[in-house]
Design brief:
Elements: E1 6-8, E2 14-16, E3 20-21, E4 28-30, E5 36-38, H1 42-57, E6 62-64, H2 72-84, E7 94-99, H3 106-120, E8 127-130, E9 135-136, E10 155-156, H4 160-172, E11 179-182, H5 186-195, E12 202-206, H6 214-222, E13 226-230, H7 252-261, H8 265-274, E14 279-280, H9 287-292, H10 303-310
Parallel strand pairs: 3-6, 6-7, 7-8, 8-11, 11-12, 12-13, 13-14
Antiparallel strand pairs: 1-2, 4-5, 9-10
Helix pairs in contact: 1-2, 3-4, 7-8
């Protein structure tokens, strides 16, 4: 991949346009041999290790990780092994981690970051994101989704702007190189910007032709916040999909473009995003698809074809996180602005 296949961040770091997502949402995962295996089994963890190695061998230099994915140890071991075999140097890699929702209290931020570093076997993270604007109560036992006796999620109302202050100290102390956000809406992002002294470097959001998020994308670019798209294929294997949810990879317009360019529908979608200088982190546990996803820098979509994809937008969100809809910081309900948009320029 060429040097132009990266976005220069405000801190001078370069975010590769293509990265590997390491969260498999489905209840089963493919091994390298194609066999389906239960999530969180030893074989599944081995898959995380093998797929991360395969991605680095295929040229990926961005690995997107998170505490909540529960595979930091295997992903970190794969990175270490590819450094040891001299495929890459640590400075060649861009590693993203994420602060989980149970660690939003300021006193929990540093221990959470240090724990992820220890589990990954790294000395620093290139980017550390607040995974969600909503928070859960920290039960102290590692539970990701704490619930009461009735099965209701234990919400915590810690304001993410307070969490952000603790994130800034991680940069100041060299624990992480940069900090950013994930799953935040524009109003929430603006609140962080107004209160910060270290601005967000990256925003991760669900982004694909059916969910263009034009307003949020423009806002981030105007504020020099790089964008990383997740679920770029519309989360086709998500266990929470509904029967009537659209299938992005089966869209007729996208399939027609794939035929025209002699590429796969997935490659068309990824090219559509990176051509807008948006980084992508498709997840795959199939080594052939991991390699295929790198083959998006040898062609360019015409302006007319970019427009053909633009108009596919349905404002359809694959990952709606409906279990946290009652949280005060749930981001996907549009609320009246507290101040005129003109003031945000």
């Amino acid at each position: 991949m060429a040097a132009s296949s990266a976005i220069k961040l405000y801190n001078g770091a370069k975010l590769p346009l293509l990265g590997l997502g390491t969260y498999w949402r489905v209840p089963y995962a493919y091994t390298m041999g194609g066999k389906l295996l239960p999530l969180k089994s030893e074989e599944y963890k081995k898959t995380a290790y093998e797929c991360t190695k395969a991605a680095i061998s295929a040229g990926y230099r961005h690995i997107d990780t998170a505490y909540a994915y529960e595979n930091e140890e295997e992903v970190g071991r794969a990175i270490k092994d590819k450094i040891l075999d001299k495929t890459v140097k640590r400075e060649d890699m861009f590693i993203t981690g994420k602060l989980w929702a149970t660690h939003h209290h300021p006193e929990d931020v540093r221990p959470a970051a240090l724990n992820s570093l220890k589990t990954l076997g790294l000395d620093y993270l290139d980017m550390y994101l607040i995974h969600t604007p909503w928070a859960f109560r920290n039960p102290g036992d590692g539970t990701l989704f704490p619930r009461d006796k009735e099965g209701n999620l234990f919400f915590d109302d810690t304001d993410y702007t307070i969490t952000w202050k603790a994130m800034e100290s991680l940069v100041e102390d060299g624990v992480v190189k940069g900090i950013g956000l994930s799953n935040f809406n524009m109003e929430q992002t603006h609140r962080v910007i107004k209160k910060c002294h270290i601005q967000p470097g990256v925003m991760q959001m669900e982004l694909h032709p059916y969910l263009s998020q034009e307003e949020l994308v423009k806002f981030c670019k105007d504020h020099k916040i790089a964008i990383t798209a997740f679920s770029s294929f519309g989360a086709p294997d998500s266990p929470i999909r509904k029967d009537d949810d659209p299938r992005l990879l089966n869209d007729g317009e996208i399939k027609a473009l794939a035929e025209t360019y002699e590429k796969s529908p997935a490659q068309i979608i990824l090219r559509y995003l990176v051509q807008q200088r948006i980084s992508v982190v498709p997840k795959s546990s199939n080594p052939d698809r991991i390699k295929e996803n790198t083959e998006i820098f040898d062609f360019k979509l015409s302006d007319d074809d970019m427009t053909r994809l633009d108009v596919l937008n349905k404002n359809w969100r694959a990952l709606r996180y409906e279990s946290v809809k009652a949280h005060k910081f749930y981001p996907f309900i549009k609320k009246p602005s507290a101040e005129p948009m003109a003031a945000r320029a």
